[in-house]
Amino acid sequence: MSEANPFESLQEQVDDAAAYLDVDEDVIGRLKHPERVLELTLSVELDDGTLEQFRAFRSQFNGDRGPYKGGIRYHPNVTRDEVKALSGWMAYKCAVVDIPYGGGKGGIVVDPREYSTNELERLTRSYATELRPFVGPERDIPAPDVNTGQREMNWFKDTYETLERTTAPGVITGKAKSSGGSAGRIEATGRSVMLAAREVFDYLGTDIEGATVAVQGFGNAGSVAATLIDDLGASVVAVSDSSGAIYDPDGLDPRAVKSHKAETGSVSDYGDAEAKTNEELLTLDVDLLVPAALENAIDGDLARDVRADVIVEAANGPLTPDADDVLTERDVHVVPDILANAGGVTVSYFEWVQNRQRFPWTEARVNDELESVITSAFDELVDAFESHDVPNLRTAAYVVAIRRIVESYREGGNWP
Ligand SMILES: NC(=O)C1=CN([C@@H]2O[C@H](COP(=O)(O)OP(=O)(O)OC[C@H]3O[C@@H](n4cnc5c(N)ncnc54)[C@H](O)[C@@H]3O)[C@@H](O)[C@H]2O)C=CC1
Ligand SMILES: O=C(O)CCC(=O)C(=O)O
């Protein structure tokens, strides 16, 4: 795994696209840095009565198009620069699918496996208490990311509402349905990855039915993507998690692998599947590779060994800029994270709309609206790719997104 700094990668991606746009450098400079980053030290009581300090962050990258929006990550390797990068990717993601949000992201430096449920609840409530003045349904709306889900979102909402003495379900998305969550939100990220895969195969004139697929990371995004891509008739031959990879050339059953992981805690030792390393998974000779774990999974060196024809990014930032250069040169098509995994934030947006209207949608409506957002965004991406003579779909996505953000900034009268 590469040591590339994700924040520098984001800035490089913005610069790559800016070269194809008629936007002044000072305005682009504004789009390469967060507007503000909050850094916190949370003191949380552990079950044995002692106090432990946790570093935590919330980065508000850009609010030109609406409230800051983006998930909260719990991971021991969270850094300030990682959170800044993730908040920037959120701003560009929301713009590329044209939903009325800016970008934000939060993180706590913690390995949640080492703490009890009660300790994690106190940690989450402490984070929500500290963030209360900076968030709100019209200000900054957090959501799930790595190692967080409905449980943490429900705690966050409850803390905010208690402190504000109000009901405000739209302060956070990704909640359980009983707390104001939306149908389809859990599956939304994987669903958009499936839609992006279907669209890019169609664009390339290749059949996804029968295509072989490898998925790195079998959490929320990866497991749903694997299942829905399998439902299209593709053959998922390898999946992995932090314990390693499993491979079966005849195809795995993603639903059965999910049950196995729920029972045993990992994908390892599933049936007769062969064990492989994560690096071996990334270089398998497959038609489609879906990195769905963390940043920097594929660097320039590894990119030379990638044998997939198409990569659809479920994770944020899984390819370094060097990897992008190598893959572009090798004619490997990459559907970028800011489009492919945008289903999560899109259904978060639908959840927020439902919270404002106090009117829940059916799952069928959520999925239909999601499909229409992702397929339209994909078409716009292809238009930008073909009309701007840009090297790859990532740069095309940034061209579309930067143009939209700059337009709102200009319309706000901020710029002569
Ligand atoms: N949850 C969501 O709604 C969204 C998530 N994403 C992105 O998708 C990616 C995954 O997030 P989630 O699925 O939510 O997290 P998760 O916590 O549900 O799952 C992460 C998975 O990655 C695995 N993993 C970690 N390190 C690995 C490694 N080195 N090799 C292989 N597997 C590894 C873990 O074992 C786990 O199975 C992240 O980049 C996240 O930012 C993007 C959009 C929305
Ligand atoms: O659902 C959301 O608001 C954001 C999800 C997220 O963190 C992401 O797309 O990376």
From TrEMBL:
The entry marks the following residues as binding NAD(+), namely: 189, 220
State the Pfam families in the record.
Answer: ELFV_dehydrog (PF00208), ELFV_dehydrog_N (PF02812)
> What positions are marked as the site Important for catalysis?
145
A single Gene Ontology molecular function, please?
oxidoreductase activity
CDD domains this protein is in?
A: NAD_bind_1_Glu_DH
Q: Which UniProt keywords apply?
A: NAD, Nucleotide-binding, Oxidoreductase
Signal peptide positions are: none
What family is reported?
Answer: Belongs to the Glu/Leu/Phe/Val dehydrogenases family.
The protein, known as: Glutamate dehydrogenase
Q: Which organism is it from?
A: Halobellus rubicundus
Q: What is the lineage of its organism?
A: Archaea, Methanobacteriati, Methanobacteriota, Stenosarchaea group, Halobacteria
